[in-house]
Design a protein that fits this description.
Elements (H helix, E strand, L loop, with lengths): L4 E6 L14 H7 L12 E5 L5 E4 L5 H6 L15 E5 L5 H4 L12 E4 L1 H9 L13 E3 L6 E4 L2 E7 L23 E6 L5 E5 L7 H7 L4 E5 L7 H4 L21 H5 L7 E4 L13 H8 L2 E3 L5 E3 L1
Parallel strand pairs: 3-4, 4-5, 5-6, 10-11, 11-12, 12-13
Antiparallel strand pairs: 1-2, 1-14, 2-3, 7-8, 8-9, 9-10
Amino acid sequence: MGTLNILVLGSAAGGGYPQWNCRGPVSQLYWDGSAHVQARTQSSIAVSLDGAHWLLVNCSPDIRQQILTTPALQPQTGLRSTPIAAILLTNGDIDHIAGLLTLREKQAYDLYATPAVLEVLQHNKIFDAIDRDFVPRRAVKLGQRFEPLEGLSVETFAVPGKVPLYMEDGTPDIGAETDTTIGVELTGPDGRRAVYIPGCAHISEAVRTRIEGADLLMFDGTLWTDSEMIDAGLGQKTGHRMGHISMSGDDGSIAQLAPLKVGRRVFVHINNTNPVLIDDSPQRRDAEAGGWEISYDGMEIAL
């Protein structure tokens, strides 16, 4: 025990890639059978120190499919079992919580979230299908370390974001640093550190400080440009309005995070409109030239 093992279960943003009803330029490549793109499920990772007990960070609507393609998460013993020991939620977005409803067959694991996200679950009765006698809901305070797995130290921290779309009432406060949107710092017994931030509206000084010196950064890669969905004719909102910083440009994450000392940089939570999903695209080459990797389902990282 000791190596921090991370599996990317889902590398796409909400809707996955290709989105089921989308024929935008990037999705159309998949429908046409292009060899330069690959399907991706919705965003989540799994973390383990021993390969036998796993923490999921977020629980995508695609969790069943992700388990089917990930032998390490499949039942190992008895008539019913799971290597999933705990789940931690980074916000209340549908693509991060809906998978909980798939894991409702009275199977024991711990469910961690901030009070704000637990309140989302509390106010929606459908989540009562997850029996609390088997799945205790454990409140996580920002800045307070805890061990969801033996030897794995986890600390959550506020990230500039916004409330989930279905909770918006009027004009949302975009960029607020509260416990509605969080990042996660994962530290193994040897002190090696991974920072996971699947959603971020802008990079604050506190976020920079958190990232500095990390052995691994997994960061919000939703869009290449702020107006990407508008330009593609697939939406009316900018990335900023959706609570996501873009990759490119002087104000983008590649440029802003370039000065920081980070061991490995990986983009996650990639929208179906983002051209970095295309293996040979100029945008993919630019991202890689900036020191970034583009995550994919099944990607394995060991620290």
